[in-house]
Amino acid sequence: MPTRILLEGRPGSGKTTAIRRLAELLHARRATGFTTQEIREGGTRVGFALETLAGRRAVLAHVDLPGPPRVGRYGVDLEVMERLALPSLSWPPATPTATPPPGRLVLIDELGKMELAHRPFQDAVRALFAADIDVVATVQAQHGPLTDALKRRTDIELLRVTPANRDTLPERLAARLERP
Length: 180
Description:
Elements: E1 4-9, H1 15-25, E2 31-41, E3 44-52, E4 57-62, E5 70-71, E6 74-76, H2 78-88, E7 105-108, H3 113-116, H4 119-130, E8 134-140, H5 145-152, E9 157-160, H6 169-177
Parallel strand pairs: 1-8, 1-9, 2-7, 7-8
Antiparallel strand pairs: 2-3, 3-4, 4-6, 5-6
């Protein structure tokens, strides 16, 4: 039975910190996926970058991008989802039509409004959570059709990330995911 985990938390709770640390701990295991990171200028958040586990990086959203779509004050570059995010979910990376084989791990940070604005990404996420592979994804505590549906599934474990557990959670998850 594959491991399927959603790491849920409010903005700033440590979801990205936890999943990046998990990726570091699982360096020996072949994982695919991506993380996101805030872009700050002068102490103010102005956007988000998407970085694949293979090290490819691009600006996903920024206050200076026109969109569409727009999420809050950020314009979202859906081409980044097409060029980086989708290929990073497959195995081998960069082959968007190939589903990872059983035993593989996909890490996704995050299933948020910006990422889910791309319909093919939504379809890929549904396929991943139906496949015989391990998936760990971060998700905000807010509601959304896809994330609410995933949270209701009995085969997906929902773990809350807080500043108090974000440093110990990755080690616990790594131990579970490295099982034979």
